[in-house]
Here is the input.
Amino acid sequence: MQGDLGKIYFSGGTETVSGHLAKAMPRSLLLMAYTQVFALSVAIPLGVISAYRAGRRTDRIISNILFVMSSIPGFAIALILIIVVGVKLAWLPTLGYATYSEGIWEHFKHMLMPVLSLSFGLIAQYTRLLRADMIASLREDYVTMAMSKGLSDRRILWKHVFRPSSITLFTSAALSMGGLIGGAIVVESIFATYGVGFEIFVAIAGRQYIALQSCVAVISLFYVFFNLVVDIGSGFVDPRTRDRRANV
Here is the structure.
């Protein structure tokens, strides 16, 4: 209740869990933000195209690619990227974390492979959710009315179909933010980004129970916070959810 998360055992009581989390949390938050931006940037166009071409060749190709992406765990993608991109091609660094002070390009070079490792599963998840909701929205009467007025397909898809279909996508993206902190344990350990996931790994390996409990408590708070963000933000995405009569 006082914000005292305890001390690290092996440091002889000179290092606090709060101090470690203060250094690790910004790195994890940046990794989460980059992952979400990249995943949504890829998933939204794929979901719209897949829904517009539902049942056709384009939709089948996208669905097959998503199936493969969702079948490969993040740590396996991380290892493949390290071997191919980091070692054989030597395009990107395989370990460590670079701050903005070390150079923006250097920072993004260190973050690119962790982001790709965490994004594959999210891209498949988000695309499927958006595709299913948009297919259902395309069957609504107001879409038929928009088509009868001669509106272009692009305007119908992005203005009249995408916004009401994005509620589930927005909810899933917000809730996955909290899960990314704890779910990045293996990926952060592989790339040694020294985020919250890496701190959890160190706490488990060193049997630092107080540190582990504190990290889990922080992740739980993030789950609560992002749930609140979903409840508040859904009303802005879809104004219909703000109508009290909708609950009657």
Notes: The longest helix spans residues 17-52. The domain at 9-247 is CATH 1.10.3720.10 (MetI-like fold). The chain has ten helices and no strands.
